[in-house]
Design goal:
It is a single chain. By secondary structure, the protein is of the alpha/beta class. It has a single domain, classed as Vaccinia Virus protein VP39 (Rossmann fold, 3-Layer(aba) Sandwich). 39% of the residues lie in helices and 15% in strands. Strand 2, helix 2 and strand 3 form a beta-alpha-beta unit. Helix 1 crosses helix 9.
Length: 243
């Protein structure tokens, strides 16, 4: 797996729980990089996504994941969409073009669908389809995995048709049917439990710093993070389909 806009490693925690090999992580936030260095010390780190050359990984990548920055589409921002300099789908798309993974999972806020009457959302889907992917978006709330907040998010799942062999009897339609119908329970994992408990703890505190180091960095990182329990559900199905 290649992890883009890694943050504090929501996708990566899910992949690690499944025993996946993370080829590299891409993140520029200094505090998030400290978290990644601590939790994933042996995974190569890249900073600026514009400087990544993913061609060397072509043929060796099963999945590219990334929650590209949501600020251009968030209700808390100006919703400038593709005009916002933080709109980083184009460089993520370039990485996908260069390494051509079998699967792509992209995540963003619900505003991605409504922004500019859906033009940006359509661009993301059309870009992937132009590269030979069949695309299926899902709206999945974190509350669906017992989160204390609703946190609706758009998860865009894409499968590359040309990667499938003639002997594989599982069609793309059946792949996405599995996404809709398969329901798996999370493993008894201390990693997930500790992550969820830490989010709960910080969410219950007010704006006062109670001797907590890196207060703003931590809350910012947690606020931007994806819920690894949702990522785990999606990666678990890929693991099943490709296993």
């Amino acid at each position: 797996m290649i992890s883009l806009f890694t943050g504090i490693g929501g996708f990566d925690l899910a992949a690690y729980t499944l025993g996946w090999d993370i080829l590299f992580q891409s993140e520029i936030d200094e505090f998030c990089l400290q978290v990644l260095d601590k939790c994933f010390p042996n995974v190569p780190k890249y900073g600026n996504i514009y400087e990544i050359n993913a061609k060397e990984y072509r043929g060796n990548v099963d999945v590219v994941v990334g929650g590209f920055p949501c600020q251009p589409f968030s209700n808390a921002g100006l919703q400038q969409g593709a005009e916002d300099p933080r709109f980083l789908w184009p460089p993520m798309y370039r990485v996908i073009q260069e390494c051509r993974p079998t699967w792509v999972i992209a995540e963003n806020v619900l505003g991605l669908i409504s922004n500019a009457d859906g033009v940006v959302f359509e661009q993301v889907c059309t870009d992937l389809e132009s590269e030979g992917y069949e695309v299926q978006p899902f709206i999945i709330p974190a509350a669906g995995k017992d989160s204390f907040q609703e946190r609706k998010r758009v998860w865009i799942v894409a499968c590359l048709d040309s990667k499938r062999s003639e002997t594989d009897k599982v069609t793309q339609r059946e792949h996405f049917k599995a996404f809709r119908q398969t329901k798996k329970q999370l493993p008894n994992s201390a990693y997930f439990e500790s992550w969820v408990q830490s989010v709960r703890y910080y969410s219950e505190l007010d704006g006062v710093v109670y001797g907590i180091s890196d207060w703003m960095d931590r809350t910012h990182a947690l606020g931007n993070a994806i819920d690894p329990r949702i990522a785990y559900e999606l990666l678990l199905i890929l693991d099943y389909l490709e296993g």
